[in-house]
Amino acid sequence: MSGSSHAAAYLETGALPELPDRHFIAGEWTTPAAGGRMETFDAGFGRAFHSVAAGTAEDVDRAVMAAHAAQNGWGRTKASARGAALMRAATLLREEAARFAFVEALDSGKPLQEAEGDVAGAARAFEYYAGAADKIEGETFPIGDDYLGYSRPEPVGVTAHIIPWNYPLSTAARGLAPALAAGCTVVAKPAETTPLTMLMLADLLTRAGLPAGVVNVVTGTGPEAGAPLVGHPKVRHVTFTGSVPTGQGVMQAAARNVASVVLELGGKSPLIVLTDADLDAAADGVVGAIYENAGQICSAGSRLIVERPVHDALLERVLARVHALKMGHGLRRSTLGPLNSAPHRAGVAQRVDEAIARGLPPLTGGSATVDPETGEGWFFEATIFDDVPADDPLVTDEIFGPVLAVQIADGADDAAALANGTDYALVAGIYTADFGLAHRLARDIDAGQVFINEYFAGGIEVPFGGNRQSGFGREKGLAAVQNYLRIKSVAAKIG
User: Fold this and answer.
1) Are both 174 and 189 inside the same structural domain?
2) In terms of residue numbers, what domain contains 292?
3) Same domain, yes or no, for 105 and 46?
4) Based on the domain organization, do 336 and 436 belong to the same domain?
5) Strands 37-42 and 235-241
6) 212 and 274 housed in the same domain
7) 453 catalytic per annotation
8) How far, rounded to the nearest angstrom, does the alpha carbon of residue 221 sit from its chain's CA centroid?
9) Phi-psi bin for 403: left (phi > 0), alpha (psi -120 to 50), beta?
10) Is 252's pLDDT higher than 80?
11) How confident is the model at residue 15 (pLDDT cuts 50, 70, 90)?
12) Burial 466-490 (b: 16+ CB within 10 A, else e)
């Protein structure tokens, strides 16, 4: 059945395919030790549609110990065999893409076509790191003819992965695939509001040939399941995507066990449009950068920095595109879906209401709303604030919703200064016809990744991560494999 067929059946009858509802530990579906349950919600209707296990420290310990028991076997599996298993996972994910996309859209709220893109990207991640598995090599050291010096890259051991709710499947894939390619075992804790595709992925990886215990999933809340996982003494590395305060707590917990950490945290990313830019292409980029997934993207282009001479012409184009967005349930292939939860929508609304109270009226939008077709769901209007002061919270604070703050620049140097004017440094976008200037700006802007003339350009091959309050470490690309390796050096006298 296609994703659209699943969607049509669900919207008409409420019918769902069989969905996982327990932990996945040591290759088996496992009942939670304390018997707890928690609901997962359809954000487009604002109602629960399924429930899953609510894990505790006991469940986490069972999962970590299963991963620990499987570590030696998987770490010493021939690299080409690990790669072959990941390649089979990519094939299976493409074969089952319709079901994964349907569940991802339903659980997260995002439009179905965006979820389909996420599934394709996840399959590509497993394919990419399948090819990397047998390219992990050591080095030799020139320490004299009477000595042999070499290095052995080894898996770090059990890895913990804390998966966010905005991109559950694709974020899981970009962390799990390099960890598995490097020979590490995995315990994943998906976000409590989006647990399903991570559970489905663990089952798929086992069917692709990964031995029992290599990939384990415990569902539950951050305090009850996430905290015991990142603080477990057998966990040797934590990959975390989420908020700055939670990331700081993760780093502190990992430090107690001297475990390594990759943190991908918040963003308030600038999209710069200079006077010579193609304004139609730039307007398309602006709208995609902030309204994809209803702005719930750490790397969203939530700040538009536009040179003064083209401000009015660009805003006219952006507004026309915003007014053409189709709000609605993600399974109806809308172009502006709901926010993921009622509390999150309330938080976005509070930030917008506070801005209005400060005397900043929105150019468009500004209100919580519902699906115009059903009168239900956790929606928020596509919102734009124009000519926002550089020190206003709309510019400095991450909102994580469909809210764009426009800043006006007087020249490229001013644009770069505005771009660097927050505590975040995740990504940046630049639209200009002057390629030399684009690369000078890319040099001068503090960001982990810079897009030129296409926001969200790149793919799994391009390292991704932030600086300053946006975190540290890099995911994606071959750089990600290094997160999951430790280097052992050997020096031997042979003469």
Assistant:
1) yes
2) 270-460
3) yes
4) yes
5) unpaired
6) no
7) no
8) 18
9) beta
10) yes
11) confident
12) bebbbbbbbbbbeebbbbbbeeeee
What does the buried/exposed string (b/e) look like for 40-76 if buried means 16 or more CB atoms within 10 Å of the residue's CB? bbbbbbbeebbebbbbbbebbbbbbbbbbebbeebbe
Asked whether residue 468 is assigned to any structural domain, the reply reads: no
Q: Please tell me which residue in 127, 264, 307, 398 is annotated as part of the active site.
A: 264
- 282 and 257 both lie in a single domain: no
- Structurally, the chain folds into a number of domains equal to 2
Residues 6 or more apart in contact with residue 384 via CB below 8 angstroms: 315, 318, 319, 322, 362, 363, 364, 365, 403, 404, 406
**Domain identity same for 382 and 447:** yes
Distance of alpha carbon 178 from alpha carbon 180, whole angstroms: 5
pLDDT, tens digit (0-9, with 9 covering 90-100), for 79-94: 999 999 999 999 999 9
494 within domain boundaries = no
**Is 475 designated active site?**
yes
Active site residue 72: no
Q: How confident is the model at residue 479 (pLDDT cuts 50, 70, 90)?
A: very high
Tokens, residue 407 = 């800043």
The CATH number of whichever domain residue 177 belongs to comes to: 3.40.605.10
Residues 261 and 292 in one domain: no
Name, in order, each residue with C-beta under 8 angstroms of 74's C-beta and a sequence gap of 6 or more.
82, 155, 180, 183, 184, 185, 210, 211, 214
Please report the pLDDT score of residue 472 as a whole number.
97
pLDDT tens digits, 350-366: 999 999 999 999 999 99
For the stretch 196-219, pLDDT in tens is 999 999 999 999 999 999 999 999
pLDDT tens-digit series, residues 432-442: 999 999 999 99
Q: Distance between CA 340 and CA 400 in Å, rounded?
A: 11
CA atoms of 76 and 74, how far apart (whole Å): 5
Say whether both 257 and 340 belong to one domain: no
The verdict on residue 349 lying in a domain is yes
In a domain, 310, yes or no: yes
Query: Exactly one of 166, 216, 293, 340 is catalytic; which is it?
Result: 166
Question: Quick check: 3 pLDDT over 70?
Answer: no
**Residues 149, 320: Cα–Cα separation, whole Å:** 64
- By C-alpha distance, which of 353, 418, 404, 348 is closest to 379? 348
Looking up residue 401, the CATH number of its domain turns out to be: 3.40.309.10
Average pLDDT over residues 225-243: 98
420 noted as active-site residue? no
Candidate list 292, 293, 298, 381, residue with the active-site label? 298
